[in-house]
Design brief:
Layout (H helix, E strand, L loop, with lengths): L28 H22 L5 H8 L6 H4 L19 E6 L7 E6 L19 E6 L10 E2 L4 E2 L3 E3 L2 E5 L5 E3 H4 L4 E6 L10 E6 L6 H6 L4 H8 L3 E6 L18 H17 L5 H6 L2 E6 L3 H10 L6 E7 L6 H10 L4 E6 L4 H13 L17 E5 L18 H11 L1 H8 L7
Parallel strand pairs: 10-11, 10-12, 12-13, 13-14, 14-15
Antiparallel strand pairs: 1-2, 3-9, 4-5, 6-7, 7-8, 9-11
Helix pairs in contact: 6-12, 9-10, 10-11
Length: 428
């Protein structure tokens, strides 16, 4: 093996082998092989170890994660209704990058989650990354220990020893520590967002049986729809009743509750955006509320008693007119500078029709199609065709990704720039 290595010359047996010292002695031929063996055996042993073929286990470890398919690099996340602590952000993805085959190693680099569609292109150091994270806010919907304003009775109306719970309208009991104790808010700031330009805050109230990670983020793709719209917008999505058939509004039932939520969010948005000075910008930014299904209840109460009705410049309901028609009609009548859109299926059609007739009786023009941009004062009702399911409505209504579509149509109107540029009254 040594003789074959080009780094070593072939030994000529006619030449004597000498060693350093005061005297140089020629060794007899019979000792030459002994000396050569003593010199090269340790080195050859190391070379043999370096050249040894890798085991199957080593190959498996080194080649793991180097597949070319999307599924191998980014397996679909599995959520088991786990709710991290208030300080825990959404999980980060470890990105594995394969080096040259001859090196037989894998370099692992941590990559921050930039969007719901991970990309293999690492951001440049000078680029600001897209951020989707969870933030605990005191003014979020829950926990809530007040009364239900409809009945003026305590919201937590069931007890079992020290354990408190709420009996829903359907008769099912949900316990406070399991269902009404999550104060987190899903916050999304697209990488293209610029606080120096006119912008808007989108508040998303999810429906029944939902969690922020599993449903709002990963199934309904609300953060992705915000980014894909290209509109200068950020997202706030508070956790309502956790994974429960309950539409309770919690702190949004309280007078001024929605204003407190928006006020508290300004510092969080500024911190996530990366510029503390932008807090004042977020504190005056106009708002668009999107309510899906059971999210109609916190939407209606936020408009009625939230404390900043004129700062809300748009309301978009996704198959969500199950009640509170008086509150929606009142906001529309009093806020002719904002737009209102309700997209509905056969399940909510009777209530949507009733709301349309109420508005028309007040002399308010109602449109029943989504042709053209949304302008200040637009009131639009859109019935979706048969086959569109309620469960998939946030991603498939009259069009794919309706949240994105509404923002795009809003931005098509020149009035949007004027709306987003105009400062909002502090207490309106």
């Amino acid at each position: 093996m040594v003789g074959a290595n080009p780094k070593f010359q072939k030994v000529d047996h006619a030449d004597p082998v000498t060693f350093p010292g005061k005297h140089r002695h020629a060794l007899p031929v019979r000792w030459r092989w002994v000396a050569m063996t003593a010199l090269f055996v340790p080195l050859s042993f190391v070379l043999v170890q370096c050249g040894k073929a890798p085991s199957a286990g080593m190959l498996a470890a080194n080649t793991q994660g180097t597949g070319d398919s999307f599924e191998e690099r980014f397996p679909k996340p599995q959520f088991n209704d786990r709710f991290p602590t208030a300080n825990e952000s959404l999980p980060q993805i470890q990105k594995q990058v394969a080096l040259a085959p001859s090196q037989r190693t894998v370099r692992t680099e941590p990559v921050r989650v930039a969007s719901l569609n991970p990309t293999l292109t690492l951001p440049k150091p000078t680029e600001r990354e897209e951020l989707t994270t969870l933030v605990s806010m005191k003014s979020s919907a829950f926990p809530y220990f007040g009364n239900n304003p409809r009945s003026d009775a305590p919201f937590l109306n069931i007890s079992n020893g020290e354990r408190k719970g709420h009996r829903s309208y359907g008769g099912r009991v949900y316990w406070q520590n399991e269902t009404y104790n999550d104060s987190r808010v899903l916050v999304h700031v697209p990488e293209t967002f610029d606080a120096r330009k006119p912008g808007v805050i989108v508040v998303f109230f999810h429906g029944n049986g939902a969690t922020l990670e599993r449903d709002v983020r990963d199934r309904q793709l609300v953060p992705q729809q915000i980014s894909d719209s290209g509109v200068n917008a950020v997202l706030l999505a508070p956790q309502l009743a956790v994974n429960a058939a309950d539409s309770s509004a919690g702190k949004f039932w309280e007078p001024g509750g929605f204003k407190r939520f928006i006020d508290e969010s300004a510092s969080h948005l500024a911190r996530l955006y990366g510029d503390p000075k932008s807090a004042q910008t977020f504190a005056n930014m106009p708002i668009v509320i999107v309510g899906y299904s059971g999210g109609f209840l916190p939407t209606a109460w936020s408009l009625e008693v939230g404390g900043i009705p004129n700062r809300v410049r748009g309301v978009f309901l996704l198959d969500a007119v199950y009640g509170e028609l008086d509150k929606f009609a009142s906001w529309i009548e009093k806020n002719r500078s904002g737009f209102f859109v309700s997209s509905y299926t056969r399940y909510t059609k009777p209530r949507d029709r009733e709301l349309m007739e109420t508005l028309r009786s007040k002399g308010i023009t109602v449109t029943e199609n989504m042709n053209g941009p949304l302008r200040p004062g637009s009131v639009v009702f859109v019935q979706t065709p048969a086959g569109v399911t309620h469960r998939d409505y946030v991603t498939q209504a009259w069009t794919e990704n309706p949240v994105r579509e509404i923002l795009v149509k809003m931005a098509e109107s020149p009035a949007f720039t004027r709306m987003a540029s105009a400062p909002s009254p502090a207490n309106r």
